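I'd like us to work through together how a protein chain folds, taking it slowly. To get us started, please write out a protein record for me. Go ahead whenever you are ready, and we will take it from there:
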Amino acid sequence: MNGHHLILGELVDFITGETIEDTHDERYRQKLARLLVEKKGYNKSEVNPRYELHISAGNNKAIVKIDFIIILSAKICMIIKYGPGSLVTRHRPVLATSRLVAPYQVPIAVVTNGEDADILDGLTNKVISSGLESIPSRAQLLERVADMRFDEIPARRAEMESRIIYAFEIDGSCICDDSICRE
């Protein structure tokens, strides 16, 4: 055992080719990676796995991982956050993440448990579709962001969003949870 995850061995990451720990959660992430490339049309170079986001709440600092960021035309256009269990409890922190991973509002934020997904509009905070099959394809995402303005997130808003992520992801988490890093 390592942290909260049963290590089943090693596997090769579909996107990067790196050898990583094989866990039940990682198997879902690899399934998502294959879906993005093989069914949704993204190039592997447009899918950035395990992106580390530095957050803070006052003097407290941490690093949380975003499972996938999707970069099209030099902009982060979609983020995907995996977590087992309920999706609705993950809506607020993934929306906060969509406001911190770049200096602008990322248009699409996806929460998934590997079996289901909620696709959220970053600007309206609304669920715009549900189900893994409704994750936008490369063509759909390019169309959605074609005329979009990527307005900068004000510093005060970014500070508040960072506190929200800290409250949801870090406060109350077990000290042995190795999916986050307290700085």
Summary: Strands lie at 10-12, 19-21, 47-57, 60-72, 75-82, 108-112, 117-121, 127-130, 180-182. The chain has one domain: 46-182. Residues 46-182 form a domain with the tt1808, chain A fold (CATH 3.90.1570.30). The radius of gyration is 16 Å.
